[in-house]
Amino acid sequence: MKRKKKRKPGWAKRTAQGRRMFGWLRNRRKDQTLTDQGWEFIKVSHFPFVFVYGQTSEKERYVCRDLQFLAIFNRDTWELTDVSYQLRSFLRIPENHKFRFQQTCKRQAEQAIQKYAIKLLDEEKGWKEKGITPWKKASILYRYRDWIQKEAQIQAVGEKGSEVLLEETEQFTFDGEMDSFDYRTYLSYLKNPDLFIFRYGRKFCKRIKKQYQIQQILKEAVEQERKQYLLKRRDRIALITRLRESLKGIDHEVTVIAEDENGTYDAFHMEPEILRNCLGIYPISAISGQERRSLLKKYRSDKVWDITQIRRLGVRDRWIYKAEGAEISNAA
Predict the structure, then answer these.
(1) pLDDT block averages, 10 residues each, the chain of length 332
(2) Residue 328 lies in a domain
């Protein structure tokens, strides 16, 4: 396999100073110092890196007698990082030319490690069976049962669900107690980013595995609940549609037989306009006269009957609507 040819960086081609600096940094055999236009540069090698220091001569107008750190050059990749303002000015590098610094690399490394760790978790086989016992899974689902139902309903109606689950996957950071991005770590990242991300990614993957498993269990539970909710919703819409169709041409009070939560039946009269509502909810406030007073003694004023509780609708001597499976005698 042919080795990929490296491209000479833009700063090394722009000016004569850049070309001289690049040749001096690349060549191990050249002198440790470079004098150019009133600057004296010193390179300190620590393979594959070259640490660049410099100072101006006393003859220069702006005197900088103390040795200053100016940049890091990577001989393997030809990348120049942590470039100081003084070196940028000397090489006449425009401001729109961006160099990487330690903090920039830190953020890039954190994002890459997070992404790689999640990829490892997604690719791992059998994590469901190996990590979470059945009783533990049942405990998690019970703990978040209300949230699962609410999230499923939100997603079922086409709304955007929660971007982050309750058990949010931990975000990798070098600012925590576990890891730090010191100078040694920084150089390790610059030397071999792929190996660096591989090592830290595997380490972080082990740390968040349990948390990620919980997150996946909740996601699956939400999806199952969403499907069940849509199925119930379709059935509910079908019931409301059938009841509304049965009321076509009816313009006087309708006899309603509804089943309560405890299995008892209530009979009352209601206007067809109320029964035709699209929500499938029928409040006690829509009933009038003695029937309402009688039902208020049994229920509270906010009592409502749902479409699933309506067993029959009748007008005069016939039933115009019958719920499926409803066996009620005419005497009722």
Answers:
(1) 69 89 88 87 92 76 67 93 92 89 94 91 60 78 85 73 56 84 93 95 86 81 86 86 93 93 90 91 92 91 90 92 67 42
(2) no
Same domain, 129 and 46: no
**Helix (H, G, I), strand (E, B), or coil: what is residue 321?**
strand
Q: What's this model's pTM, rounded to 2 decimal places?
A: 0.54
Residue-level pLDDT at 331: 40
Q: What is the DSSP code string of 111-128?
A: HHHHHHHHHHHHH-TTHH
Which residue from 81, 73, 78 is spatially nearest to 9, judged by alpha carbons? 78
Of 49, 70, 91, the residue at which a domain comes to its end is: 91
Cα 331 to the center of its chain, rounded Å = 59
53, 68, 91 - which closes a domain: 91
Containing domain of residue 280, as a range? Answer: 254-322
Q: Which residue has the tokens 């909710």?
A: 229
Q: 41 and 111, same structural domain? A: no
Name the helix (H) or strand (E) containing 215.
Answer: helix 193-246
